[in-house]
From TrEMBL, chain A:
One GO-annotated biological process of the protein: DNA replication
Signal sequence interval, chain numbering: none
Protein's UniProt name: Putative DNA polymerase III subunit epsilon
UniProt xrefs under PANTHER family: DNA POLYMERASE III SUBUNIT EPSILON, PROTEIN NEN2
Role played: DNA polymerase III is a complex, multichain enzyme responsible for most of the replicative synthesis in bacteria. The epsilon subunit contain the editing function and is a proofreading 3'-5' exonuclease.
Stretches of the chain forming a coiled coil according to its record: none
EC id: 2.7.7.7
Species, as recorded: Candidatus Sulfobium mesophilum
SMART domains documented for this protein: EXOIII
Quaternary structure, from the entry: DNA polymerase III contains a core (composed of alpha, epsilon and theta chains) that associates with a tau subunit. This core dimerizes to form the POLIII' complex. PolIII' associates with the gamma complex (composed of gamma, delta, delta', psi and chi chains) and with the beta chain to form the complete DNA polymerase III complex.
From TrEMBL, chain B:
Entry annotated with the keyword Transferase: yes
Organism (species): Candidatus Sulfobium mesophilum
Pfam families linked: CBS (PF00571), cNMP_binding (PF00027), DUF294 (PF03445), DUF294_C (PF10335)
Keywords on record: CBS domain, Repeat, Transferase
CDD domains, A to Z: CAP_ED, CBS_pair_CAP-ED_NT_Pol-beta-like_DUF294_assoc, NT_GlnE_GlnD_like
Repeat is among the record's keywords: yes
Domain of life of the organism encoding this protein: Bacteria
Residue ranges constituting the CBS domain according to the UniProt record: 169-226, 234-290
GO molecular function per UniProt: [protein-PII] uridylyltransferase activity
Protein's name according to its UniProt entry: Putative nucleotidyltransferase family
InterPro entries xref list: CBS_dom (IPR000644), CBS_dom_sf (IPR046342), CBS_domain-containing (IPR051462), cNMP-bd_dom (IPR000595), cNMP-bd_dom_sf (IPR018490), DUF294_put_nucleoTrafse_sb-bd (IPR018821), GlnD_Uridyltrans_N (IPR005105), RmlC-like_jellyroll (IPR014710)
Domain Cyclic nucleotide-binding per the UniProt entry, residue ranges: 16-137
Length: 232, 634
């Protein structure tokens, strides 16, 4: 397990084509957004091979957070203190999650928030952050928007604020039920599934191209405020 | 897991999964994945790698078709929500049998090979469901060629699902003891002119098979002594089927192992051999045997059973997923034969006619677009008489002659033409010069009645007698029409007045009251506009073909509008015709009188969509016609 958290050389860069890459689409629910005070309540993840979502073997774990659930967060994701009091704490769950991810490319919506919390925990437990490459759906979306890939009416649906569910709706992806890490991960996966053909048509060849796009993304912080609602 | 809940709910609403228990559904759900195909994506390529999963459409629709190297693509089916594809090549594991293209943005659930094979093996109802629905549409198509040939041999109507293999798999199979030498085996084969030999042990249990190919590859080319035991060259991978198995199971095995022969064994003993050709031949009622049956009759009464069988054949063709134009072509062929036979019988009854004549048919018969119910639409053209007494003699003859034909058709269940457009009406039994006069009167003085008659009569087609009389009438019609923009303008006006029944908000406009409340007349609103346009364009360009499909295909090269829209028009026409035929067939199956009224709400989403597209196409073409005939439109 430790091997893939720590030692990953640059040559490992995924050069395989978008349709052949293994992805794990992740989402976390948090007690709040303070990177020091708050903690993870649940982790959801779905595997994808290229555009194929493996819905049979998804990952979903709730855990007992070290910090208490706030009334604010309970309203959003409907996880009650009584739901998690009997759950294991993150130390018991994280290993399984890392096994599930393997060396696959991680994908999320405004994923830097998820990564910040996950990395804090892996550093604490294993001494290093996750070594996986990361793709953020959000900059992909902005990039596609800028390229004019969406038809007028779809783009018009989206004003300046793009939240996960807004994007999902404009791709006719069903959105119902409460915020929940696995459902949100599944919605994110479906958005990514829609993006893949659009991205490859627009010239994105490999997962590495998408990783690069994610890294070069500057609007992260402004967006974090508007979109982090999906995380907690 | 949470995200499979939707999947399980979905499967519970979809046959055959809805028949499986919850536990099994949960089991299957674990191996399900999901894919998205933007509109236009080719999901499976014919002759490409086999499908790796059974795909069930969650949303969207796909088109399944064959694209032969030469010739037009053969549409097998459109599949939409809840339907699936990719099973045969998944089970067969060899190659995709057809091309599948997403016709809208489509989401599919995928069940992998392992899961499907488990279901196939464990759940007969599952297997039967799929193979029933796929076989009828699919395999028959794959082997269409073979199938058509097999129809020549007729054969009883033995359904694939109720006939044990033992009943048909009795074809001579050559067997010999596995103890004999290669030379002895080869001798047996050549004496019996068989290309394969099944070897059996002392108990008569088959142990292997030797084919010509084994003799060539393993003996001749390898220089192996022919005194060796035959068992040294036999191939032991015999795929067997039990005589009591149903035929569809045998077919399933053939697909699965990609073979064309199966040994039929009964209690371990070799009983015969069954080939996929045999299975195809089972498919019953045959148009060709029917035609032979017609040919061999000597009385009108003898024709009656054959005439009745037409409906069965239509049912069979529908089940096979035949195109509407192919169905109407076969019906036309049968009806033509019946009518020709009646005319032969009439000539026998009354002696040869005093002059050359041609029996012509028009309306839907003339266009080769008959479905279940057709009236008698026919007429006689005869050679211009030299004298009045010649003419009188001809009239006398054709009066009794045409009455005989009319009454014979009545006996076969073909009703009179309500407008009396029949050869037995003296008005429509005329010499060539009179026909020319009729036509020129209609063209030069296009009263509503004249235009009406033109629509019907200008689709005439010669059926029997001296066909050149009808051909020369067609020549003079086209010469007459050249530059007759006023007459054509009348036709154009009539076409554009029949607007498609789609409302402002894109809902269908249906009958508001009466017997057909909430229904839509397919013949008037869907089919007639395309027929009328094709006729107008054909008359504009002097095209001789009378069937709508043939007109369109000839016009492709000659007519700018048709050039652009031919494929769409053809597609729309086939679709509307098929809907109508299916509708009428269902009505007849449930003992009702067939009509042309369809309730759009009874259509699937895909059908509704295609119908709207067809209507949109008609509207677009009507606009083009208005533009073209602008000065003549009122």
């Amino acid at each position: 397990m430790l091997s893939f958290i720590t030692g990953r050389s640059k040559s490992d860069e995924k050069e395989s084509r978008l349709q052949e890459t293994q992805y794990v689409v992740i989402d976390t629910e948090l007690t709040g957004l303070n990177g020091r005070r708050d903690s993870i309540v649940s982790i959801g993840a779905v595997r994808m091979k290229g555009g194929r979502i493996d819905i049979g073997e998804s990952f979903y774990k709730m855990m007992n957070p070290e910090t208490s659930l706030t009334a604010e967060s309970v309203v959003i994701h409907e996880i009650m203190p009584s739901d998690v009091v009997m759950k294991p704490n993150i130390d018991a769950v994280l290993g399984d999650f890392l096994d599930y991810c393997g060396t696959d490319v991680l994908v999320g919506f405004c994923v830097s928030v998820d990564m910040e919390f996950l990395n804090r925990e892996t550093k604490r437990l294993f001494g290093a952050p996750l070594g996986n490459q990361v793709i953020d759906i959000y900059p992909l979306f902005e990039w596609l928007l800028k390229k004019g890939i969406f038809s007028g009416e779809k783009a018009a649906l989206l004003s300046s604020r793009y939240q996960l569910y807004d994007i999902a709706r404009c791709f006719d992806i069903e959105v119902n039920g409460a915020h929940n890490a696995i459902i949100d991960a599944f919605i994110t996966a479906q958005i990514f599934q829609r993006f893949i053909p659009l991205l490859s048509k627009a010239g994105m060849k490999s997962a590495a191209d998408l990783v690069k796009l994610t890294k070069n993304f500057k609007g992260g912080d402004h967006n974090r405020i508007s979109s982090n609602i999906s995380n907690f | 897991m949470v995200i499979t809940e939707d999947l399980i709910d979905f499967l519970k609403s979809v046959p055959p999964f809805q028949f499986l228990d919850e536990q099994l559904l949960n089991d299957i759900a674990r191996s399900v994945s999901m894919e998205f195909y933007p509109k236009g994506t080719t999901v499976l390529h014919q002759d490409g790698p086999p499908s790796d999963a059974l795909r069930i459409i969650k949303k969207g629709a796909v088109k399944v078709f064959f694209a032969p190297e030469k010739g037009e693509e053969v549409l097998i089916d459109y599949r939409s929500e809840g339907e699936s594809f990719g099973l045969l090549s998944l089970v067969g594991g060899d190659k995709s049998r057809a091309t599948v293209v997403a016709v809208e943005d489509t989401i599919c659930y995928l069940i992998g090979r392992g899961g499907v094979l488990k279901l196939v093996d464990a759940h007969p109802s599952f297997t039967e469901f799929f193979f029933k629905s796929f076989l009828n549409k699919y395999i028959d198509k794959t082997y269409q060629e073979m199938h058509n040939k097999s129809l020549l041999f007729g054969g009883g109507d033995k359904p694939l699902f109720t006939t044990p293999v033992g009943e048909i798999g009795t074809k001579g199979v050559l067997s010999a003891s596995q103890e004999i030498s290669i030379r002895e085996g080869a001798e047996v084969m050549s004496q019996n002119r068989m290309s394969s030999l099944v070897l059996v042990d002392k108990e008569g249990v088959p142990t292997g098979i030797v084919t010509d190919r084994d003799l060539r590859d393993k003996v001749v080319s390898k220089g192996r002594p022919v005194t060796d035991a035959i068992s040294s060259i036999m191939s032991v991978s015999l795929i067997k089927t039990e005589a009591r198995d149903y035929c569809f199971e045998a077919l399933l095995k053939m697909i699965r192992y990609n073979i064309h022969h199966l040994l039929v064994v009964d209690e371990g003993k070799l009983k015969g051999i069954v080939t996929n050709h045999d299975l195809m031949m089972m498919q019953g009622t045959s148009p060709i045997s029917l035609v032979r049956d017609i040919e061999s009759q000597h009385t009108v009464e003898g024709l009656a059973p054959a005439a009745k069988k037409t409906n069965e054949i239509i049912g069979l063709l529908l089940k096979e997923g035949a195109r509407a134009s192919n169905i109407t072509r076969i019906i036309t062929e049968i009806n033509d034969r019946l009518l020709k036979k009646i005319l032969e019988l009439a000539e026998k009854e009354f002696g040869k006619p005093p002059v050359r004549y041609c029996w012509i048919i028009f309306g839907s018969e003339g266009r080769k677009e008959q479905t279940f119910r057709t009236d008698q639409d026919n007429a006689i053209i005869y050679e211009d008489p030299l004298t009045d007494s010649d003419d009188a003699r001809s009239r006398t003859y054709f009066t009794v002659f045409s009455a005989f034909v009319r009454d014979s058709l009545l006996k076969l269940g073909v009703p009179r033409c309500p407008a009396n457009y029949m050869a037995s009406n003296p008005e429509w039994c005329q010499p060539v010069k009179q026909w020319k006069k009729y036509f020129s009167t209609w063209v030069y003085t296009p009263t509503p009645d004249a235009v009406m008659k033109s629509l019907i009569f200008f689709d005439f087609r010669p059926l029997y007698g001296d066909l050149s009389l009808a051909e020369s009438l067609r020549d003079s019609l086209h010469a007459l029409l050249e530059g007759q923009m006023i007459f054509l303008g009348y036709m154009a006006n009539m076409i554009i007045k029949n607007t498609p029944p789609v409302g402002f908000f894109k809902s269908f406009i249906v009958e508001k009251s009466g017997e057909h409340k909430n229904e839509l007349n397919m013949k008037v609103k869907g089919i007639a506009p395309i027929v009328d346009m094709a006729r107008l364009f054909a008359l504009e360009k002097g095209v001789r073909e009378t069937s709508t499909i043939e007109r369109l295909s000839t016009l492709k090269e000659k007519h700018t509008i048709v050039k652009e829209f031919a494929d769409e028009l053809e597609h729309a026409f086939e679709f509307m015709m098929l809907l109508r035929i299916q509708h009428q067939f269902e009505q007849m199956e449930s003992g009702k009188e067939p009509n042309n009224f369809i309730n759009p709400n009874s259509l699937s989403n895909l059908e509704k969509k295609m119908m709207k597209q067809s209507f949109n196409l008609i509207t677009r073409l009507q606009d083009i016609i208005i533009e073209r005939y602008k000065p003549l439109i009122w």
